[in-house]
Amino acid sequence: xxxxxxxxxxxxxxxxxxxxxxxxxxxxxxxxxxxxxxxxxxxxxxxxxxxxxxxxxxxxxxxxxxxxxxxxxxxxxxxxxxxxxxxxxxxxxxxxxxxxxxxxxxxxxxxxxxxxxxxxxxxxxxxxxxxxxxxxxxxxxxxxxxxxxxxxxxxxxxxxxxxxxxxxxxxxxxxxxxxxxxxxxxxxxxxxxxxxxxxxxxxxxxxxxxxxxxxxxxxxxxxxxxxxxxxxxxxxxxxxxxxxxxxxxxxxxxxxxxxxxxxxxxxxxxxxxxxxxxxxxxxxxxxxxxxxxxxxxxxxxxxxxxxxxxxxxxxxxxxxxxxxxxxxxxxxxxxxxxxxxxxxxxxxxxxxxxxxxxxxxxxxxxxxxxxxxxxxxxxxxxxxxxxxxxxxxxxxxxxxxxxxxxxxxxxxxxxxxxxxxxxxxxxxxxxxxxxxxxxxxxxxxxxx
Amino acid sequence: xxxxxxxxxxxxxxxxxxxxxxxxxxxxxxxxxxxxxxxxxxxxxxxxxxxxxxxxxxxxxxxxxxxxxxxxxxxxxxxxxxxxxxxxxxxxxxxxxxxxxxxxxxxxxxxxxxxxxxxxxxxxxxxxxxxxxxxxxxxxxxxxxxxxxxxxxxxxxxxxxxxxxxxxxxxxxxxxxxxxxxxxxxxxxxxxxxxxxxxxxxxxxxxxxxxx
Lengths: 448, 212
Prior knowledge:
- The structure holds 2 protein chains of 2 kinds.
- Chain A is of the alpha/beta class.
- Chain A is 51% helix and 8% strand.
- The longest helix of chain A is centred in the middle third of the chain and has 35 residues, at 200-234.
- Chain B folds into 2 domains: 3-80, Orthogonal Bundle (Methyltransferase, Methionine Synthase (B12-binding Domains), Chain A, domain 1), CATH 1.10.1240.10; 89-209, Cobalamin-binding domain (Rossmann fold).
- In chain B, helix 1 (3-10) runs parallel beside helix 3 (31-50), helix 3 (31-50) runs antiparallel to helix 4 (56-80) and helix 5 crosses helix 9 (198-209).
- Chain B has a 5-stranded parallel beta sheet, sandwiched between helices.
């Protein structure tokens, strides 16, 4: 179904409804056979129901995947990032063999070559700073210095272009010499603004960008092929749409690093709050980059530095929550659904996140290690929730332990709807028997 | 002893705490006494952390205050030739192979150190063989394995196995901790215990070594 002409005049609820319907009714997807189409529609409907806190026909079950598909297919983690044929084969085999109710995108596994060309420093990836059979990992550093908050506040984009990117990408280091683009004001200034682009070492950065761009375009085409094949032949809908971050996490994860941001909570409180607020429009805009009408209308937020322990509840409320809430409200107004992945735990945050300003039924809360009985107590009737099947059990437990664990989790959480089954941390390691037991038990036991 | 210094550190008043330490030293205070004050403050902070009343940022800032006050004190101790604090036990600690996460590890090592343990910190991405070597050399009572990822499960298991193969398993107690670790993983890796945070690591180690 096409986007309603009067979309802009709809209420937030109606907008969300229209976006969800367009997703369930798979605008623009050509399935390989009617069974796949029917499966897709049924599965997407299960999720659309639980997202809106309704009782689904049965509980949908998802697998949050890390590098498991590659290890399962007999490949290495490095293969996922350097060999798109293996990437495609592993993703297809994983989905076909386990048949969770949703498809994970191959786009999670970024091409290592692109990162190499850019000399990207924020992460280490398999074969590049960490062993070939390990997932990519964040190698945080103070890419923004403690005395640079004001420069960031003055002009975040300029700060990114001339300060942040030259530090986080070795290939763009010479950009620290560029004049600000806001100098390109009037005729007499044009040549002086252009001059740096005549210098050989600046030209070299552009060549590298072009090569990274070429490979990324190629990668995107391949990803589309892989994802479409899984969606159209197996009938598995994607349920993660766009991507964003909590504004505080942009400063904490991306720019300052954990240790530095923690010291800043004492030394630079006002600056943190101002920078988080400055990030609101950027983080509101970001999810639309990967969303088009008919796609899953969710904006996925991996939440990091607001977890229990990383901030006091008081600081969470003061430093983390206000700007994050503002981004959520912006998206909710437009009928997009913030899909909030709480890494670590939020046992001390459940009172705060059930904020009365956020309308019921407009968010999805996906938990890693939070106590699910407490989650249900707080969130039932307020928002869709999911998560916390322990990844450790999938790797180190027995089949019977997994089956019992899934049943217990469902007993704890299912209630009258608004809940689905998913593992806590993204999955790298598991035995196939355990993962089958997890999916199958959820499907069999998760009926109302 | 300065109760005022203890209070300032406990209350996270960094600038004032460092300034007071400077002033006390200028007035001729006992340098080692100041370190005792810091340790007392850290003890209170550690208890609050264990009780869920203070959090990782407080531990990090406390570490930072201790570092600054330590830097003021150090030249004076060296000048007077006084000895360091006596250690209550030895621990080898590291993040297991393939995992490069260091923040939690650093906090645990710091809290162990503050609580009187002599800690050999092997860093991150530490192969099993390096743990074996360190245990042979350093002869600790406790080994701590840190890991953030689910992919750290097997390296943990392999490290425990390597210690066993080297005939060292019975000489040490092994604790694990970090992001995706729990009791399931401790059992899987055949470690002796899982500790959920830095104070748990301190208490496990004290329990094993027989310190109250």
